[in-house]
Structures are given as structure tokens and as C-alpha cells.
Amino acid sequence: MRKLLILSLALGLAATVGCSKPPQQDIDAANASLEAARTAGAQDYAPESLQAAEQAKTDLDNELQAQQDKFFKSYTKAKELAAAEKTAADKAAADANAGKDKMKEEVGTAIQTARTDLAGVRDQLAKAPKGKGTAADLATLSADLDGVDASLNEAQAAYDGQRYAEAKTKVEAANQTLSTVKNDIAGAQAAKAGK
């Protein structure tokens, strides 16, 4: 009788463990948090945090696959990994929002600074030495400054559209061109002074 009771308990336990199901609610919550992080712009504003969350998802997926291949399934670790994915994804979303706010402030300042610099470089160009053979060079520099102005307008449009990473890229390109034009003007002034 005792052996029969032990055998019944063992078979009941085996049936329970063998039919164990994945913690689908936890998995769905973790995946929803990861999608929210992506939607919040974690790729642009918190890439390291997003990468950690995506690694946590990979770990969970691997564990689910490992359990799927077993006869006696146990989803205890999967439940823990789903919680870890959700925590990492929630952090990525929060980091993305903080990063976005920080970049918004930095880019807004950078656009205004670049506009001020552009006005100053235009003044320098107007005062640049003019002489034989410089008309084409001055026209090229003026066209470069027009390009900077266009880039800053695009940066402002991206900024207004809350695409701060795009705006940052455009401002950086504009600043690089401004720097080149400043150096060209300074070189021309130095060459004229040396004559």
C-alpha cells in the first residue's frame, strides 16, 4: 500500500511538472515593456540600456526554448528572466526619456549658438579681403554659408518634430562647415596681411 501511494504521488508530480506552462503573463508584460522602450526612442537616447533589455529578452527566449525541449518542464527560471527583462526594459524606457530631455536641451542651445556663429561668419566674410582671383573663392564660401543656413533650418524642423538625434546630426554638420569657412577666411586674412 505504501509503495502504491509513493508511486501515485510520483506520477502525479511528474504529470504536474511535465504539463507546466510558461509564465505567459510575465513574458507578455516583459515584451510590452521592451516595445515601450523602443517606442520611447531608446535606440537613439539610451542604446546601452536598450541593449541590456534586448539581451535579457534573448536570455528569456533561450530558457523558454530549453524548457520546451524537456519532458519535465520547470519555468521558475523563465519567470525570473521575464522579470529581469521587464526591469531592464523599464530602465531603458526611463533612460530614453531622460536622454531625450537632455538632448532636447543640448540641441536647442546648439542651434541657437550655431545661428549666432553663422551671423558672425557672414560678417567676417563680408569683411574678407577682396582682390584679384578672390571672387570665386568668396562665392564658394558664401554658398557654403547658405548650406549651413539650410542645415540649421532642417535641424530646427527636426527639433520642432521632436527628432532630437536627427537635429543633433544636422547641427554638428553645420558647425563643421562653419569651422571650415572660418578657417578659410582666417587663412585669406593672414595671406593678405603677409603680403
3D structure, described in words:
The relative contact order is 0.10. The radius of gyration is 31 Å and the shape is rod-shaped. The chain has helices spanning 2-18, 24-39, 42-45, 47-68, 76-126, 135-160, 164-194. Helix 2 runs antiparallel to helix 4 and helix 5 packs parallel to helix 7. It has 2 domains: 19-99; 100-189, no CATH class. With 195 residues, the protein is mostly helical.
Furnish the topology, listing elements before pairings.
Blueprint (H helix, E strand, L loop, with lengths): L1 H17 L5 H16 L2 H4 L1 H22 L7 H51 L8 H26 L3 H31 L1
Briefly summarize what is shown:
The protein has 195 residues and is mostly helical. Helices cover 86% and strands 0% of the residues.
- Helix count, per DSSP? 7
Order of helices and strands: HHHHHHH
Estimate the global geometry from the Cα principal axes: rod-shaped
Number of beta strands: 0
Kindly name the structural category: mainly alpha
Query: How many domains comprise the coordinates?
Result: 2
Helical content class: over 70%
Q: Uncertain regions: pLDDT < 50 for 5+ in a row?
A: 10-19
Computed Rg: 31 Å
Mean pLDDT: 87
The biggest sheet, with number of strands, parallel, antiparallel or mixed sense and barrel status, is: none
- Strand residue percentage: under 5%
Instruction: Tell me the distance between the termini.
Output: 115 Å
Protein traits:
195 residues, 2 domains
